[in-house]
Amino acid sequence: MGLAEFERKKDEKIDGVIYDMSPSPNFIHGIINNNINTIIKYGLKNSLCLVFMENLDFKYHPDLNDDYLCPDLMVVCDRKQLKGGAYYGVPKFIAEILSPSTAKRDKTQKKDIYEQAGVEEYWIVSPQGSVEIYYLENGRYILEQNYMLQSDKEEEDYNAEQEIVLKSFPHIKMRLGDIFDGVE
């Protein structure tokens, strides 16, 4: 048996359709993902909540079907809803880092699924330096903030020091520049 036979293929299942997410996106995607994950993980220390990075399926309709998504980042707080490699509850926070193969689905289908599932906060992060932050209000996502990183201190719109706070975890703060640290 070769090593490849043991590797889990990364995919998602939406409305019964399986979407192959292999091969992995480029390294910039990983840098951004890890930056956000590290900040959130540190902020969740001594909490019942956990942050997962690309390694836990979200079963968003477990009572209806076996569809699942594999968010880039997901914060879960109801540990009783963790079973095997999946989460069956409602995450508090999800972030997707865009890649060319998933960008449209992240901004449409997946955004709608997260909204309908009741995920309180959803971030769409572009490797080009933008962060869209959606908050769930009355069952609908409202675009709360839309940042475009300007890291040149000489520019009038410099905003790398802009602080972003997670809605459900106001003690978790990160600077816009920290999200994209190491991407240059």
Distance between the termini: 40 Å
Number of helices: 4
Low-confidence stretches: 1-6
The helix content, as a percent range, equals 10-25%
Structural class: alpha+beta
Mean pLDDT: 92
**Strand percentage, roughly?**
25-35%
- Give the SSE string: EEHEEEEEEHHEEEEEH
- Computed CA radius of gyration, to the nearest angstrom: 17 Å
**Globular, elongated, flat, extended or rod-shaped: what is the shape?**
globular
* Major sheet characteristics: 6 strands, mixed
User: Within the largest sheet, what's the order of strands?
Assistant: 3-5-8-9-10-11
Would you report the number of β strands?
13
Tell me what the structure shows:
The protein has 184 residues and is α+β, with helices and mostly antiparallel strands. Helix content is 19%, strand content 30%. It has 4 helices and 13 strands. The strands form 4 sheets. Strands 3-5-8-9-10-11 form a 6-stranded mixed beta sheet. A 3-stranded mixed beta sheet has the order 4-7-6, with no helix packed on it. A hairpin with a 3-residue loop joins strand 9 and strand 10. It is globular and about 55 Å long. The model is unreliable at 1-6 (pLDDT under 50).
